Amino acid sequence: MTLLEVIATTIADARAAQRGGADRLELVTAMGEGGLTPSIGLIEGVIEAVGIPVNVIVRPHSRSFVYDVDDYAVMLRDVRAIAETRANAIVVGMLRANGEIDTDGLARVIEAADGLPITFHRAFDEARDLYAAFDTLLQFDAVTNVLTSGGKPSVLQAEGTIEKLVEQAAGTHCTVLAGAGLTVDALVAFVASTRVRAVHFGSGVRVEGKGLAPVDETRVRRARALLDARI
Asked: Is 80 helix (H, G, I), strand (E, B) or coil?
């Protein structure tokens, strides 16, 4: 079974995604900026409203994925607060200026997460070498998913890279979560080509395919049906 993750920005989004058959949510705010840390009120409200896992992004700003001391102070406070809720996982990503994974920062987040698993988000796509970056992330048992578009604006432009990353992840504790630019119409061919076992939808399952529109329950249900038909 291929896991279906959907971005939610509101409680209504979360409910629509669950009704449509999503397996998991990524909760963000400011989707137009690529997703920033949501408020505790929104986190708790979404967790109370749905019965599927809620992964919560921790991203203090959209300027870059290279963070300074003050950024990390904010992020660690947010991670500790989220760990006190019933969130399923933390979604985070950080790089050094040279394009390598900031392993020191990641280790601090993992410690603050107090046992919650980590999804490393699309900061990964800005890494200097995706395959070396994936090897680095595999050194962290807490990192159970890597969200990636294969280094391209759309994952549909990087099927070969996604396929190679899926092969790299085989037999490990980490899953390649393919997303960004994925559409419901392209879903079956994409999954067949890459053999990916987890997909991530944002605008592709929103009203009229618009990133700032609400989640379209009908589109989520169609994605779910297409994935289920592959079993």
From this structure: helix
DSSP one-letter string for the chain: --EEEEEESSHHHHHHHHHHT-SEEEE-B-GGGT-BPPPHHHHHHHHHH-SS-EEEE--S-SS-S---HHHHHHHHHHHHHHHTTT-SEEEE--B-TTSSB-HHHHHHHHHHHTT--EEE-GGGGGSS-HHHHHHHHHT-TTEEEEEE-TTSSSGGG-HHHHHHHHHHHTTSS-EEEEESS--TTTHHHHHHHH--SEEEESGGGBGGG-TTSPB-HHHHHHHHHHHHTT-
Alpha-carbon gap, residue 85 to 29, rounded angstroms:
17
Residue 106 pLDDT exceeds 60: yes
pTM for this prediction: 0.95
Q: What one-character DSSP code corresponds to residue 111?
A: H
- Structural domains in the chain (count): 1
Helices 159-169/130-138 angle, 10° precision:
30
CATH number at residue 137: 3.20.20.380
Q: Report how far Cα 32 is from the mean position of its chain's Cα atoms.
A: 15
Q: Model confidence at 159, in pLDDT bands (50, 70, 90)?
A: very high
Domain of residue 204, residue span: 3-228
